[in-house]
Amino acid sequence: MEFAKSYFGKELEELVYQDLVDFFIEEKDESDKIEFKAFSAKYGNLNKNLEGVIRGICALVNSNGGILIWGAPEGTTVAGRAEKVFVGDLSPVNERKEKDWLINKISDSITPLPVGIKVRILENEGNYVYVFEAESSDYKPHQYKNTYLARLDGQTKPAPHYLIESLFKQIKYPNIEGHIKLTQISHDGNHYFLDLTIFLFNFSQLQNEENISFRLTCPQGVFVKANNPNYAKMYGYQGHQLIFNDFSSVLHFGAPNMHSERLMFNPQTTREVDLLLSFGGKNSPLKTTSYKLNLANIDWNNTNNPRYLIVEKEENKTMAEKQAELGTTREDSLRNILEE
């Protein structure tokens, strides 16, 4: 993904506020790969402005990817030209939102979950410009507020039916997502017990997935059924890992498969809990979903929906994305496995 470099001559992470000021010294047009969003009270509050940003990002991932600049100059109409031009003073955002908040807001608003979205936050004396870089998605088409969007003729527009149909046919592999629902927290005086359900979804309408497997690891807790001889073969690492190699022979669109488990913890030694779910199928890439819980937040008056225990989450990242984030190379992977 080299969109920032093609427009600004530098990587997204290298951009500074002055780069945007300089960029708009001359007139700029939008295209199928770049969109400009001004921040203005006439568009509503910050969240209302952000809706237009999410709409634009949805269109980019459904198309060929690109850049969206939030805080760009207001577009102006020029006689004899059909499209607006953007030049001059920036219209920056007056509030800072952290990267994780923004990415989660975007990811939670677009279906299926988009990947490959980055953001650079540029600040100048309490004014902020957000530069988003979005990859073309392998899982398109995506929708925002029940509408499929695309970049057409340099604008974000509802995608026509023929394009939506074509995008569905281009799907390279099923889009499998894994989520964990915390259903109950309890205790017997000596131990805490956490009941949870693992959900695996197929969000690819025209492709079933086969031979689904998953693993769930919890270093701080032990799966209760690991002590049962009838189920012991499904568990490893002294009961800290559930291994389900033949979870489902087929996973259809719109019909999630689920599995419930109970974890046991020592309340004297356990406060933070990590849940790491890895999953995949015959055709889909391996993904991970992880959660961090804080058992110090247990409310014994609210035990039937303990989602409030989750303090961090990262859902449905491919292993390739995780390695890229960590800077892990092929050589690193081989060294870690072969030289241990």
From TrEMBL:
Keywords: DNA-binding. Gene3D superfamilies: Schlafen, AAA domain (3.30.950.30). Residues 30-159 form the Schlafen AlbA-2 domain. GO terms for molecular function: DNA binding. Pfam families: SLFN_AlbA_2. InterPro entries: Schlafen_AlbA_2_dom, Schlafen_AlbA_2_dom_sf. This is Putative DNA-binding protein. It comes from Ancylomarina subtilis.
